[in-house]
Amino acid sequence: MCNGGFLFGRAVRSNLGKMVDKKSRVKDAVTREYTINLHKRLHKITFKKRAPKAIKEIKKFATKHMRTSDVRVDVKLNKAVWSRGIRNVPTKLRIQISRKRNDDEDAKEDMYSYVTVADDQQYKGKGTEVVDA
């Protein structure tokens, strides 16, 4: 019934063996570090559209992994993507995505994602890491 901790329904088995509802896990505030390969996402993209497309792909990546439609990009991440110009976007970037609670009362969602560039840009042998906040 359970394949290595993954279940195909709405409930997921936690580390302690208890069943936890997926909806409650999405509402937790969490910070994770990812390595995003921009090279494969920008393949066959026109030179003058590469950096703007990279920002859109980072937002799409954060939406997929954090399950929030409200994604905010940090100024430092924008500078890192644009650091070598519009054409020569870095092939890989180590990014930090934080899912935070939205304090705005008239917001559509109660959570938003904040994406910034990670402090350590060494991505060899590093996968997804949960950052203790």
In brief:
This protein is of the alpha+beta class. The protein has four helices and seven strands; from the N terminus they run E-E-H-E-H-H-E-H-E-E-E. A hairpin with a 5-residue loop joins strand 1 and strand 2.
Shape: globular
Topology order in helix (H) and strand (E) letters:
EEHEHHEHEEE
Helices and strands: which structural class?
Answer: alpha+beta
Number of helices: 4
How much strand content do the residues show? 25-35%
- Main β-sheet description: 5 strands, mixed
Oligomer: single chain
- Uncertain ranges: none
Description:
The chain is globular and about 45 Å long. The N and C termini lie far apart (34 Å). Helices cover 25% and strands 27% of the residues. A hairpin with a 5-residue loop joins β1 (11-13) and β2 (19-21). It has a five-stranded mixed sheet. It has a two-stranded antiparallel sheet with strand order 1-2. The chain is of the alpha+beta class and 133 residues long. It has helices at residues 22-26, 38-41, 50-66, 75-81, and strands spanning 11-13, 19-21, 30-37, 71-73, 92-101, 111-117, 129-130.
